[in-house]
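Consider this today:
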Amino acid sequence: MTTPTLGGILRRGALAGVAAGVVASVVAFAVVEPVIARALAVEEARSAGTPAEEPLVGRAMQVAGGMVAAVAVAVCLALVLAVVFATVRHRLPARTDFGRAVLLAFLGFVSFSLVPALKYPANPPAVGDPDTVGARTAQYLSLIAAGVAIAWLAVLVRQVLVERGWSAPLAVTGGVLAGVAGYLALMLIWPGGTVEIPADVPARLIWDFRVASLAELTAMWATMGAVLGLLLTPRTGGPAARADGSTSATGL
């Protein structure tokens, strides 16, 4: 079986990132921005009676900038995903490149988005002490690094079980159990968050923002994996791949 060159995978990854960023931006505009508007209204009510500071950037420009940033972040993550795909393609438990890309995107979603969201849930603008941003960012990034390490460990566990003669379903089950156990351990032992919820912020607003934020990330990762897989599938082992001068990506 052949696969596109590393350059070909990166180009497909960049396209997948653009698609994922656009989808994430649409989801953010549709479900996240309305919640942010409610949070900003809370902030305005909190500061009523005090001289208002003129914002450096208008709200419309902030929304547009956020959508552009979502595309940029998605492209960066998709490029990382493409590099990882080219490196560990032969170790992923799937029969097709589409399945491998979707599985890898799922692992990325769990490591980069789901586990951090469960341990350190996102908060709207009206919540959070600016003086603790640095500490909270460090906690968040360290948790992501640990989550990626656990995902890699789960893949290795599955591979070791296969090499020892375990059947494919049992080896996959072993890898999944190792990953789940690792993530549960992370949830238990990692330091908790330090954000206090102000009394004037409704619980429903907090919940809506967290669900909307997770929906945006889910849409981004799902689109990234599906588009990357679709872009890889037609060229795998077909005439187009040979015409494209395909070689083993892992050999580059």
